[in-house]
Structures are given as structure tokens and as C-alpha cells.
Design goal:
The chain is α+β, with helices and mostly antiparallel strands. Helices cover 22% and strands 35% of the residues. The strands form two sheets. Strands 1, 2, 3, 4, 5, 6, 13 and 14 form an eight-stranded mixed beta sheet that branches. It has a six-stranded mixed beta sheet with strand order 7-8-9-10-12-11, with helices on one face. β8 and β9 form a beta hairpin. The longest helix is centred in the middle third of the chain and has 15 residues.
Length: 268
């Protein structure tokens, strides 16, 4: 048995974070999670419609050092952003995180959909095509799901979604997401662009099953990037006993996307 192998073996036994990564803790000893949800507008800054600036998106993520990121409007190998550019994989490389992409639609000889970044290795991946009403002319939408284990024996499920612009489709999609995520026995965190405001039928429906992180007044607004006037990007979690929101911040970064990213810290 080589010295290198012995060193790795004892590191795993004595320091499990060697394998699973580390988690932050609060003063009372509780573990914390740092979560971001971010509609990245295929990494196209609104002020520069002709360019793709994936490094600007990565810079936001790297600045705040999240454990998990829900991404929406992600391009993969299409003409718009670059036939050789998989934005999910590239963001994983730029941030040092593991990536999972789920295609919503074929787009310009490539794909377009949602993605997830995780600090921890992916223990499992899953997805769901979301329903649409007949003759609604909606755009196909999906749910991306991963299972991770921040600490040994403490697995959780994380999901990313982007609901349709049409209310009738959003209601159907909300019900499908709740039904799907209820099949998991682990605690669940859901992030995304829900295209619906607090008090709408869609968000009220999610509020029956999830606790939604929030802050007060205009500080919660996530779109547009300059002078935002509404909140449609959320992070939700369940069951309540497993999580407590201790920070909710809309990151004021008006260059990289037409949405502002949402940062939430949870104890669990």
C-alpha cells in the first residue's frame, strides 16, 4: 500500500470533509447552507446585446461562494451563445462546482434550459418535463433535480425551475413540481424564476407546501436589473423543521443579466 494511498485513506477516516466538502456553522453549532437562484439571461448583459459574458456570471457566483446555485435561461452548444459553449459546464469550471443541466427546448441547433451548480459531488440527478395546457402556445419548461450530501448521512434535494409566462401553465407546473418533490424523503430546496409575484395563485400554492425565504418591501424586487419593480425569483424549502432562513439578499448586480440574483442562507 503506497504512502499516497495511506495518506488519502486516513484523511477520509479522520476528516470526512476531505470527501464531502466542508459546511459553515453558526455560533450555536448549526450547519448553514448558502443558496443562490439566478436567471442568467444566457449570460448576455442587457446593455451589450451582441456579447456573451459568462465570466460576469461566474464572478457574481464566486464573490458570494454559494454551496448550491439554481440557474435559469442556460444555453448549451447553440448558435446564439456559441456552438462550442456549454454554459452549464463552463460555469462549473469557472466556479469549481459540479454542474447538472436539463434541456427545456431545442434551440438554434443546441439546447436551452435550466441548470444547477453544487459545491458537493452529485449523489443523484433527476428531471421533470412540466405540463402545459392544451393550445396554450406555451414554451416547454422543466425541473432539474439533484441529491447531494453536505455531510455524511445528511442528504438533501435541490431543484431549479423556470415557469411559463402564461398563468394557466404556471398553475399546472406548480402542481407537478410539488407532486414530484413530494416523492423525495429528504429535505428539499427549490429555487427558480417563477414568473409570478407574491400573492398570485401560483406562489400561494407553493406557500402551502414550502416555506419561502423573503425580505420586506422593495428590497425583494428581482427584475428588471435597473430600478427593479417586482419579485419573481424565489428560494423555497421544506419541511420547515429542517431549515431556517437567516439571510435573504437580492444582489445588486445590474450588468450581467436582466434579473438580479437572490442569495439565501439557511440553517439546517
Amino acid at each position: 500500500m503506497s504512502k499516497v494511498f495511506l495518506s488519502i485513506f486516513f484523511a477520509i477516516i479522520l476528516f470526512p470533509q476531505f470527501l464531502f466538502g466542508t459546511t459553515a456553522t453558526t455560533n450555536d453549532g448549526k450547519d448553514t447552507l448558502r443558496i443562490i437562484t439566478y436567471n442568467i439571461h444566457h449570460a448576455n448583459p442587457p446593455s451589450k446585446p451582441a456579447i456573451i459574458d459568462l465570466k460576469a456570471i461566474a464572478a457574481v457566483i464566486n464573490t458570494y461562494k454559494p454551496d448550491l446555485v439554481a440557474l435559469q435561461e442556460v444555453d448549451v452548444n447553440n448558435r446564439r451563445s456559441g456552438r462550442n459553449l456549454n454554459e452549464a459546464t463552463a460555469l462549473g469550471n469557472l466556479t469549481g462546482m459540479h454542474a447538472h443541466f436539463v434541456k427545456a427546448i431545442d434551440y438554434e441547433d443546441g439546447a436551452y434550459g435550466v441548470a444547477i451548480l453544487s459545491k458537493w459531488p452529485l449523489q443523484g440527478v433527476d428531471s421533470l418535463k412540466l405540463p402545459m395546457a392544451d393550445s396554450s402556445n406555451g414554451e416547454p419548461r422543466v425541473l432539474a433535480i439533484i441529491t447531494v450530501e453536505p455531510k455524511p448521512g445528511k442528504a438533501l434535494v435541490f431543484a431549479s425551475t423556470h415557469l411559463d409566462l402564461r398563468e394557466q401553465n404556471r398553475v399546472l407546473q406548480a402542481k407537478a413540481i410539488v407532486e414530484k418533490l413530494n416523492t423525495y424523503s429528504q429535505p428539499v430546496i427549490l429555487g427558480g424564476d417563477f414568473n409570478a409575484k407574491p400573492g398570485s395563485d401560483v406562489i400561494d400554492y407553493f406557500d402551502k407546501y414550502f416555506l419561502r425565504s423573503r425580505t420586506a418591501g422593495n428590497a425583494a424586487f428581482t427584475i428588471p436589473e435597473i430600478n427593479p419593480n417586482r419579485e419573481i425569483d424565489f428560494i423555497m424549502f421544506k419541511p420547515n423543521k429542517h431549515f431556517k432562513s437567516i439571510r435573504h439578499e437580492v444582489i445588486k448586480e445590474p450588468y450581467a443579466s436582466d434579473h438580479l440574483p437572490v442569495l439565501v442562507e439557511l440553517t439546517y
